[in-house]
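Suppose a colleague, Dr. K., hands you the sequence of a protein chain of 382 amino acids and asks what its three-dimensional shape might be. Before reaching for any lab equipment, you can write down a predicted structure in token form. Begin with the sequence itself:
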Amino acid sequence: MIRRTLGRKRGFIAFLLLPCLVVTGAVALFGSEQAGRAVVPYVNLDEGTGGSWLIQELARNKEYSFKAVKSEAAVRSDIVSQKGSTGIVIPAHYTQSLLEGKQTDIELIEMRVSESSYTLRAAVEGLTEGLIQSASAVRAFSLKSSPNVEAVDTGKKFEELLQELSKHTISGEELHLRLYPKPGLNNVTGFTVMFMMGLLTSAVSVIMEDRKQRTMARMYTAPVRSYEIALGNFLGSLAIGVIQIVLVLGISRWVLHYDAGIPFSIHFLILGAFMLVSMGLASTVSGLIRETKNASMLNSLIIVPTCMIGGCFWPLSIMPEYMQKLANFVPQKWTIQAVETISAGGTLADITLPLLILCAMAVILLAVGSAILRPDQPGTDA
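The predicted structure, expressed as tokens, is then:
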């Protein structure tokens, strides 16, 4: 089975090269860290160190991508044209106003409130309060040490204090609670399983070729049962699927450095369970189809519709309720659910139900396929 499928140039391109290219594109579009970062246009009109220090501290958060623009009008333009989520305008003489004890606010520009804009506003308010306290401490110390100290000396001491704060000698430890799956993982997994189902077409084509050439009928004259023939094709196609899974996971992890938050062994187990269902489905379809030309209809009648219902292209939550119930009968839904559960911090025990459902689907489809295979009967185009 491996020789007949991957030994051909067309099979190598369709079942190994193309899935790797598609997964690479999916990771680039939906799984990159840059794709999930909110763009924050800003303009710093401050001549002192306060404004630049504020932007430097905000940029330490990897959830935001800061974009410097030339004017306040440019910030507003980016927000209106939705090129950024929240804009920041640091006014002129901001550092000087802090040292003089004057109230000066940093302007945040946004069209709608979102989770990222709310957390950014909280971060700006926290850092601003810290700047006010630091400036107040420097001013009090300068007045106490020398009432006639010049403003230049105060600004220098303030700059030295901010430099020390930038070292973060004392800092907290960041805990990754992993309450939610990695952004974009739904789409990456969806495109992966969709092209993994391409092996279904290959398995059906091989069985139809054996039926057309009467190879299966001659095989059935030997002491071989129909379920053994179905199981042989099942295991052969599964071996090809294992090769495909290892290659796809290896490229995404060690070449593209895509961290889905899932251990390799568990990720392989989930995709392997899905591959079992795909091969069981191939056995069933092979028993139903009698003409070779009908095998080309699998993509439009089985693969794409089930991927759409199973949530490979969009979240299940946006579909009508009856479609969400229908998704329980396709393996893509349970595969994506298992992957997202592990990515959100779950354990192997938390995905027991999806794995059992996938294995049950595979057993049922393989049983049905072996029952209707009828290897002694050639195809109508034999």
